[in-house]
Amino acid sequence: MGQDKARLVWNSHFLIEDVAAKVSNVAGNVAVVGQPERFSDLKLECLPDLHPGLGPLAGIEAALASARGEFNLILACDMPEVEPAWLENLLSTAERTGALCVVTRENTGIVHPLCAVYQIACLDAVRARIEAHRLKLTEFVRDLNPCFLEIEEPIWNINTPDDWTNIIHGRRRLSALH
Questions:
Q1: Distance in angstroms (rounded) separating the CA atoms of residues 89 and 109
Q2: Which of 75, 80, 60 is nearest to 149 (CA)?
Q3: Which CATH superfamily groups domain 5-168?
């Protein structure tokens, strides 16, 4: 991307603040996972990665290890158009089913493990994967036998400057890179 995606300006504030507000409104509280000094100027609680540099699975570990709740809504900061209704449905499905993991899945079959709810009971499995250096998130989710929340619209991730330009100008990519 060439710059910090979390600090892209979206709706007159940083993208991370927009995503955090959606999570907070649905879940009741929010914490950002990452280097605390990176977010020290924002009014957001920050949980440091316990294994920096090991990617999203390590971020999920930090969230679960914080023991903030039985169900943990995990949302990447590069998904500006995620609908709050999807987040509400993820949480209610997790609570209703007791599934270890509830993940959004587009009608095209694309799965979004960073728009999901993970039960705290997943923590040992996350740690075992990190210790074995098996960090691929899609494989981890598959092994949890997840419950899927089917959505009709695509979730757009911001991965390149072109993605960002298309999102801010209301244009969509022809195919999503997931």
A1: 18
A2: 75
A3: Spore Coat Polysaccharide Biosynthesis Protein SpsA; Chain A (3.90.550.10)
